[in-house]
Design brief:
Structural class: alpha/beta
Largest sheet: 5 strands, mixed
Number of strands: 10
Bound molecules: 5'-O-[(R)-(carboxyoxy)(hydroxy)phosphoryl]adenosine, zinc ion
Strand order of the largest sheet: 3-2-1-4-5
Strand content: 15-25%
Number of helices: 9
């Protein structure tokens, strides 16, 4: 029960920033349901097609809501507020979730809460875990690679980010070169199992401070595959496992090296990871190794809360609800939104 309100607080969280329509229901800090409708339509295009994504959201959003309510055993009347992703993301996709949230808020006469998707990824670590502050969270998704200093659920700021491609995008683009369907991260992880991660060597980009760069690495990988495929037609088919293991290894190494640099610079004793790439088993193991080596507290979200999900939007909404941080119906979605903005 929430002491301030003398009752349990139920929040509906609506996520539609990219290609997953997801709705979750939270009860205070815990999650009652988290339903994700993946859009299979993008598989054949090797990446998300924005116009198709918004149309799929329109098709999926009502069945996803019905499923989320059914599975949480909560009725719409019992919901205390409607939280939705206001950005960053694809404009057309964001608009579907935001318009749906606004119409629910209007018809049910419930407060509306706008959520920054990148902050929600960080707050996914608060589901079933009690992180200590200050902590550094490494958010690695399809659109972003960010190092975030988290002082409290209400105070976080960027200390490093990618200057070009994100790590998730690098997984996706490499998978495409290897003839694997979108999203590439889980595909590369699958093929990497049993592969030799040291077979193909790629250089680590030299980037100052706590920023990242992945575009040079992507070109490096592309060139190696093209040159070898010119010499041997079956290069990809014969070497797929070792290529995937080597690609996974270098991407995760770049992430771990920068996180280590950030820990040393800010002398924090707690770390967290979030975003789609944090579902990767090898990454999670490397984080645990770093935790043991440096004697840190490490927080890793459950896999269903790593990739885009409505539950993290609901939980982020709970934090805003207890501060009575509501928004008006005239708020506009934003394709670009920095941590700390709304
Ligand atoms: O956070 P997310 O679900 O959506 C965005 O906000 O972008 O992240 C999606 C990204 C994609 O690039 C996908 O390939 C990657 O996360 N991803 C993974 C894994 N699962 C998802 N990358 C590596 N290994 C995985 N198991
Ligand atoms: Zn995301």
């Amino acid at each position: 029960m929430n002491i301030k309100f003398n009752k349990d607080i139920f929040i509906l969280g609506i996520e539609s920033s990219c290609d997953d329509t997801s709705i979750g229901v939270s009860k205070n800090m815990s999650v009652l349901s988290n339903i994700v409708s993946n859009q299979k339509i993008h598989k054949k295009y090797g990446g998300v097609v924005p116009e198709l994504a918004s149309r799929e959201h329109q098709k999926n959003i009502i069945p996803t809501l019905q499923e989320a309510l059914k599975s949480s055993k909560i009725s719409l009347r019992e919901i205390d507020a409607i939280a939705f992703t206001n950005g960053p993301g694809l404009l057309g996709s964001l608009l579907v979730g935001a318009s749906f949230a606004k119409s629910l808020s209007l018809s049910l006469k419930k407060p509306l809460i706008a959520i920054n998707h990148m902050e929600a990824h960080v707050l996914a670590n608060f589901i079933g875990q009690k992180p200590q502050f200050p902590l550094i969270c490494l958010t690695v998704s399809g659109g972003h690679t960010q190092l975030v200093m988290v002082e409290s659920p209400y105070s976080m700021y960027l200390i490093g980010e990618t200057l070009d491609d994100s790590a998730g995008e690098t997984f996706d683009k490499c998978a495409k070169i290897l003839g694997l369907p979108y999203p590439g991260g889980p595909q590369i992880e699958e093929y990497a199992k049993g592969g030799d991660k040291n077979k193909f060597k790629f250089s680590i980009p030299k980037v100052k401070n706590l920023d990242f760069s992945f575009s040079g690495l992507k070109t490096n990988i592309k060139r190696l595959i093209e040159e070898n495929s010119n010499k041997s037609k079956n290069f990809i088919a014969n070497e797929r496992r070792d290529l995937c293991a080597s690609i996974e290894n270098i991407i995760i190494k770049i992430l771990i090296d920068k996180l280590t640099k950030a820990i040393d610079k800010f002398k924090v004793s707690s770390i967290a990871i979030s975003g789609g790439v944090s579902a990767n088993e090898y990454f999670r193991n490397e984080i645990n190794k770093l935790k043991n080596k440096k004697k840190l507290n490490a927080f890793i979200p459950d896999k269903q809360y790593s990739t885009d999900n409505g539950a993290m939007i609901a939980v982020a909404g709970y934090y805003k609800f207890i501060n009575e941080d509501f928004t008006n119906l005239d708020i506009a979605v934003k394709s670009r939104l920095k941590i700390g903005e709304i």
